[in-house]
Design a protein that fits this description.
The complex is a heterodimer of chains A (421) and B (301). With 421 residues, chain A is α+β, with helices and mostly antiparallel strands. Chain A folds into three domains: 211 residues, P-loop containing nucleotide triphosphate hydrolases (Rossmann fold, 3-Layer(aba) Sandwich); 84 residues, Translation factors (Elongation Factor Tu (Ef-tu), domain 3); 104 residues, Translation factors (Elongation Factor Tu (Ef-tu), domain 3), CATH 2.40.30. Chain A is globular. With 301 residues, chain B is of the alpha/beta class. In chain B, a hairpin with a 2-residue loop joins strand 7 and strand 8. In chain B, helix 6 runs antiparallel to helix 7. Classes of the chains: A alpha+beta (421), B alpha/beta (301).
Chain lengths: 421, 301
């Protein structure tokens, strides 16, 4: 890899969901191995561990299962992050456990992903677990979903089996809010259609998994329309070199900002223009997501962390009643009488849950309208009432300004992930 | 049409700057740990960018094992003066003299693990509520599970099985008095990213990273620099060779690699072609399969 070429790479974050039985670890191991991201000492270490455990083959799952408890129990408990690169892209894999009791871990991994790989065992077809994974991918609005039908070698590389699984999945996915689906027949153990095209599946004309990862179009995954800039930190040097500098530091959450733009600060509603967009290297002509920059404004107005600078002609929603889909993450179930802390963009507030509308059976998508609360791993729709107005967009419009977390004020634990409806 | 898509180093930089600003905004007394290694150099460069044109709004702290390479200390003072930041140094030597820890004995003695006590004592002394480190998830399997904001109880312990879920970029820095957070702004960077960034930013790096002639002792497959701190075993004889270091830590456990890479581009080529992880040369990780997880549980970085 030439030193120069590396500077032009793009970053793609994806998650893999599935259980060990689906061959997830083998698939990841294959991607890492074929992109030369497994090192000799790592390979030696897992080879030794495998022998010690009495495994017949080198157990690639040991590469991803980093915690002692995970190796002892042979399961993946927590999301692990893996990295590999091709000359074109750098990849961050969020490797998520597949079982229903780890729904919250998958939600965590999915929250930052551009793409999800859903694994299906060709012998078993579309299972409840598959539906759950597809539902979570759509709930978290992952823009691209790649369904890998694995272990094709064990079904005689049969086109018919693949097509049946694809039809069953599409039937289910019609109910979901994802538009970009891809289906690939693979045999991760032998490398079929991972990096190299399979010679045993001539009937498949589509791309290999690696080709897809390298080439899928990801530049539209961010919102470039609605100008949103949550103020994160106020930069005031008060130094002899910069006696009056007052900059608003943050990361662009949507749209494209340019000096001269007419903006409004919410929730106060004060209007002004952007004077400059500064970085350490100097001022820039435009800022778009996910750039971290510092803005200065034409007028001196009172702005602090938690405020949002937006384009004057394109305003977000604002209010204290917020309805959302949530995934409950904590062992302690939702309590109506409790006050929870809310973190939304850079803003903090407190809230009470006004209403639980329903919970969703993640395996069948059936709604349970009678539900009164949510427990760990439950997904449902709720309305909260906040102590201060939130400035937001729908999650389907903008993942940055449409997401929030609830925090238990007693334990300080993050108890829920919310996607504003 | 113009593409509004950042290149990956810019995106990683933007993410790290965002995390650093969150720390400055969410905590009252944060500190940045500085070891003199490439990760902490890059992290402190990112801090300089995050708050410009204002100075870095927190101090940097070096936990000095007393077994540092002299080149590291020289570089440290020069680099931090350039940043315009305040430097705090706390030493393992003092912890030993105060009876807080007992020095390991024998030919494999290292002060690496003892740093944890000195670090936790310093966090108490200054009442730091957040300590930023240059740990990366690609370094080691326990670190692959680490959060950006990682909660530590009042004893500084990490509970890997009970970590807070971390969603989107919404970081929950809430904690009880006496507890603190460890924060890892460059979690998503790889060794390659770090070197590419150094090249892109034209950062002056410590000479130890570049090839030089040095007397080394080979022990358990690790090349250790010959020094007063490494006791020779019977039969061991230091040999002069051309080496460089891929990680910089304590002289007693940081292994050198044979290399002729004398320029950043050559280091990048070498990293790209390498078949061994950078921590493959770290004697401290080789103590057991879960050596890093165990040290981290106790409060190590």
């Amino acid at each position: 890899m030439a030193a120069r070429g590396y500077l032009d790479m793009e970053l793609l974050r994806f998650l893999t969901c599935g259980s060990v039985d689906d061959g997830k670890s083998t698939l990841i191991g294959r991607l890492l191995y074929d992109s030369k991201s497994i090192f000799d000492d790592q390979y030696e270490a897992i080879k030794l561990s495998s022998e010690r455990r009495g495994d017949e083959q080198v157990n690639l799952a040991l590469l991803t299962d980093g915690l002692r408890a995970e190796r002892e129990q042979g399961i993946t408990i927590d999301v692990a992050y893996r990295y590999f690169a091709t000359p074109r892209r750098k990849f961050i894999i969020a490797d998520c456990p597949g079982h229903v009791q780890y729904t919250r871990n998958m939600v965590t991994g999915a929250s930052t992903a551009n793409l999800a790989i859903i694994l299906i065992d060709a012998r078993k077809g579309v299972l409840e677990q598959t539906c759950r994974h597809a539902f979570i991918a759509s709930l978290l609005q992952i823009p691209h979903v790649v369904v890998c039908v694995n272990k094709m070698d064990l079904v005689g590389y049969s086109e018919q089996v693949f097509e049946e699984i694809r039809a069953a999945f599409e039937d289910f996915a019609a109910k979901l809010d994802v538009t970009d689906f891809h289906f690939i027949p693979i045999a991760a153990l032998h490398g079929d259609n991972i990096v190299e095209r399979s010679r045993r599946m001539d009937w498949y004309q589509g791309p290999t998994l690696m080709y897809l990862l390298n080439n899928i179009h990801i530049s539209n995954d961010q919102n470039h329309i609605d100008g949103r800039f949550p103020v994160q930190y106020v930069v005031r040097p008060q130094s002899s070199g910069h006696p009056d500098y007052r900059g608003y530091a943050g990361r662009v959450a949507g749209g494209i900002f340019r000096p001269g733009d007419h903006v409004v600060v919410l929730p106060s509603g004060m209007e002004t223009r952007i004077k400059s967009i500064d970085t350490y290297e100097g001022p820039v002509e435009e800022a778009f997501p996910p750039m971290s920059v510092t803005m200065t404004l034409e007028d001196e107005i009172d702005i602090s962390r938690g405020d949002m600078i937006v384009k004057e002609n394109n305003r977000p929603l604002m209010g204290q009643e917020v309805t959302m889909m949530v995934c409950w993450l904590n062992d302690q179930p939702l309590k109506r009488e409790r006050v929870y802390a809310v973190r939304h963009t850079t803003r903090d507030a407190r809230c009470r849950v006004r209403e639980v509308h329903y919970t969703v059976d993640v395996n069948t998508l059936h709604r349970r309208e009678e539900a009164k609360t949510l427990g760990r791993n439950d997904i449902g729709k709720i309305t909260i009432h906040t102590t201060a107005p939130l400035v937001f967009d729908k999650y389907s419009r903008n993942r940055n300004t449409g997401s929030l977390i609830l925090i238990d004020e007693g334990t300080n634990e993050t108890v829920a992930a919310g996607m504003i409806a | 049409m113009k593409s509004y898509r950042l290149k990956h180093l810019k995106e990683l930089e933007s993410e790290a700057v965002y995390v650093l600003r969150e720390v400055a905004a969410q905590f009252e007394r944060p500190v940045m740990l500085f070891s003199g290694g490439k990760d902490s150099i890059v992290m402190s460069q990112l801090a300089r960018k995050a708050f410009a044109p204002a100075p870095i709004p927190f101090p940097l702290m070096h936990i000095d094992t007393g077994h540092n390479f002299p080149e590291t200390l020289e570089y440290r003072d020069q680099w931090i003066a350039g940043l315009g930041a305040r430097l705090i140094v706390r030493s393992v030597e003092d912890s030993i003299n105060q009876g807080r820890v007992v020095e390991e004995k024998g030919p494999n003695a290292s002060r690496n693990a003892l740093q944890t006590v000195t670090l936790l004592d310093a966090i108490n002394e200054f009442q730091f509520d957040a300590a930023m480190g240059g740990g990366r998830r690609d370094e080691e399997k326990a670190r692959a599970k680490e959060r950006f904001f990682s909660h530590r109880d009042e004893f500084g312990q990490w509970d890997p099985k009970n970590q807070r879920p971390e969603l989107w970029n919404l970081f929950n820095g809430r904690k009880r008095p006496g507890e603190h957070m460890r924060v890892f702004p460059i979690s998503n960077w790889t060794e390659m990213d770090v070197w590419q960034y150094v090249l892109q930013e034209k950062i002056e790096m410590p000479s130890l990273y570049f090839t030089h002639r040095r007397l080394c002792v080979e022990r358990n497959g690790v090349l250790l620099a010959h020094s007063d701190y490494v006791m020779l075993r019977p039969g061991e004889k230091p040999v002069e060779m051309e080496v460089r270091f891929r990680t910089i830590g304590d002289m007693t456990c940081t292994g050198a690699t044979r290399s002729q890479a004398g320029a950043l581009e050559e280091i990048i080529q070498e990293v790209a072609a390498s078949r061994v992880t950078e921590r493959g040369g770290r004697a401290d990780d080789k103590r057991s399969e879960a050596a890093m997880e165990d040290r981290k549980r106790e409060g190590y970085f």
